[in-house]
Amino acid sequence: MTNQEFYENHLKLLAENDVNVLVEHDYHDDAEMILHVADEPIHLKGKEALLQQLGDYLKYIYRGFISTEKLAITDDSIFLEATINTTNGPSKVYDALYMKDGKIFRHYSGLK
Q1: Nearest to residue 17, comparing CAs of 75, 62, 84, 50?
Q2: Cα 20 to chain centroid, rounded
Q3: Closest CA to 14 of 37, 72, 109
């Protein structure tokens, strides 16, 4: 699967709203996520932490994908700016994904 195909499939998994499938399919066993959504960065390590964080995100915040404004893809990374629908209305998101073994190894995410 190319990283372009991975990105398109990632959006489909988000739409399915199943955190277990999303984390198992898309995230490396040693994945880390760094969130810039509060005053201080939030650093998560491992699938259990991701299941909790992404589960809350899907349950309480995310309400659907609207559009991709910018997308840069290389052999080992995906960087994007997109608009999503949230419980507070449309929001801009910024994500940088470092890929390893076809899965997300490091995920940097911000919300504006």
Answers
A1: 62
A2: 14
A3: 109
